[in-house]
Design goal:
By secondary structure, the protein is of the alpha+beta class. It is built from nine helices and four strands. The relative contact order is 0.15.
Length: 211
Amino acid sequence: MRLFTYWRSSAAYRVRIALALKGIAVEQVPVHLVRNGGEQHAPAYRALNPQERVPALELADGTVLIQSPAILDYLEETHPAPPLLPTDAVARAKVRSVAAIIGCDIHPPNNSSQLAYLRQALDQDEAAVSAWIARWVTDGFRAVEALIGDEGYCFGPAPGLADVFLIPQLYSARRFDVPLETFPRILRVEALAATHPAFAAAHPASQPDAE
């Protein structure tokens, strides 16, 4: 398998965490999202992923999967151990709820293309962009803080899907200096993940294309 990735992409970061947790080896293919106007817009990559984003996962037979939630579902279904989701249906829904808050509500307004639109088309300065980022991160994290548990990772002693989404979003929040002191549960999960080898291996600073 080949993972088309960018070191600082939080969506690609999610997939790297899941791959590391499950012990799945892949070849990483860096796609620089800034250099030369963004390598994701090059014709060769557009033919691979018409959405022109990362990540994309190319399987051994040449099939290409895009969108991190779909890739994570594929990994969970084809490599079920260790699981990212509990067996109980209600518990699975709760985990997916937290993942969805991050993946559907926090991340999209703060994606690189949306931020570029704020800066370029709407002529917003960096202070306005930072305020925009902080607004959506803070709103979403407030809900996440209320939904996760008081011990261990988001939902227990082992990392799962919610943590796969949360840790990259925390990395992004810190990049943009979003205040996090009011989220002690989230910070507990972050500190615990920092001691886990899978999260360390997936961290942006550990990637071959890190700058």
